[in-house]
Amino acid sequence: MSKPDRRKKFKELCFGKENREGRLEKAKKSIRAIGRLSEKSNYIYTDKDVAQIKHTLEAEVRATMILFLKRSGSVEERYKRLLDFDYEVIRSLETRDPELYDYILEKQAQGSSALVEYINERKKIEETIDVPGFLSETNESSGNKDLHAEVLEKLDQIQEVILKIK
Question: Is 135:150 a contact under the CB 8 Å cutoff?
Answer without folding.
Answer: yes
